[in-house]
Design brief:
Largest sheet: 7 strands, mixed
Radius of gyration: 19 Å
CATH class of the largest domain: Alpha Beta
Number of strands: 12
CATH superfamily of the largest domain: Vaccinia Virus protein VP39
CATH topology of the largest domain: Rossmann fold
Number of domains: 2
Strand content: 25-35%
Helix content: 10-25%
Structural class: alpha/beta
């Protein structure tokens, strides 16, 4: 089963004079105001922002707090957990994302830091990497650096939960190799400039295991299209499990969906629950 329904293929037509390339420092995708609106209306996976909340709440009930969420973004996971009474800290490198998170809640301790190299004067019972957020770590060296920090901040009896989609099902691989543009999101611009239509086209580099997703943000009323490229690492399930073991973790459970069924080759998700090696 593919985690994503069939993409709605579209045609993108724009004169070169109307296309504006976005520099990394001016990201629309990682602008917290745009980010929330974009994923509330994410066409490839409807209700994406709500699918894993019940699962992660159950995991929090099992392992307790304090809880640390890595790549917390605008607080989609951290805030609901804090509202249930858990002590939660969220880390993100994006000032814009954290500003959006702070506007929504003061119950979470928000920390601006790079997950590849962070220092917090606290140890945690549960550390969460939710919804493909680990895929933002593009190299083995950076992932090992991140795991080193996780080990330092995880209580001896604590757990780390990592969730990615299972990109290596037949349907997901076909999706990765499909370079046709598709509809990503439609939402109202947070600065009241009208309707934003987001389309995307992905290019998968098998050798590097990197997916380059080019995103087109079109302000319909202005006939302007802003282009930004976002890069993800497509971790193979066995690769990620081996890296955890190599870096000092013991894998306790592997789950294939939010109902906590065992992971199989056809599972839509790959969820790993690990602890420190004794």
């Amino acid at each position: 089963m593919n985690n994503k329904p069939e993409k709605e293929t579209i045609q993108t037509e724009a004169k070169s004079s109307n296309i504006i390339n976005i520099a990394d420092t001016n990201s629309i995708h990682y602008d917290g105001r745009h980010y929330d609106l974009m994923y509330e209306n994410f066409y490839p996976i409807p209700n994406l922002t709500k699918l894993d909340l019940s699962f992660l709440s159950d995991i929090a009930n099992q392992y307790g707090d304090p809880i640390l969420e890595l790549c917390c973004g605008t607080g989609r996971i951290a805030i609901p957990l804090a509202e249930k009474g858990w002590q939660v800290t969220g880390i993100d490198v994006s000032e814009s994302m954290l500003e959006a998170a702070k506007r929504k809640s003061s119950k979470v301790k928000w920390v601006k830091a790079d997950v590849r190299n962070f220092e917090i004067d606290e140890k945690f019972s549960l550390i969460i990497f939710s919804a493909n957020s680990i895929c933002h770590i593009l190299t083995m060296e950076d992932l090992e650096s991140c795991f080193k920090c996780v080990k330092k901040h995880l209580k001896p009896e604590g757990r780390i939960v990592i969730h990615t989609f299972n990109f290596y099902t037949k349907a997901s691989l076909e999706d990765l190799w499909n370079d046709s543009p598709y509809l990503y999101s439609v939402y109202q611009d947070p600065d009241a400039k009208g309707t934003v239509v987001v389309t995307a086209v992905a290019r998968f580099d098998l050798t590097e295991q990197l997916c380059y997703e080019k995103m087109f943000f079109k302000l319909v009323e202005y006939q302007k299209e802003f282009v930004e490229e976002v890069t993800y690492r497509i971790y193979h399930p066995n690769e990620l499990e081996a890296l955890l073991k190599y870096n000092g973790f013991t894998i306790e459970r592997k789950l294939g969906n939010y109902e906590q069924e065992p992971f199989t080759s056809s599972s839509p998700n790959h969820i790993i629950i690990s602890k420190l090696k004794e």
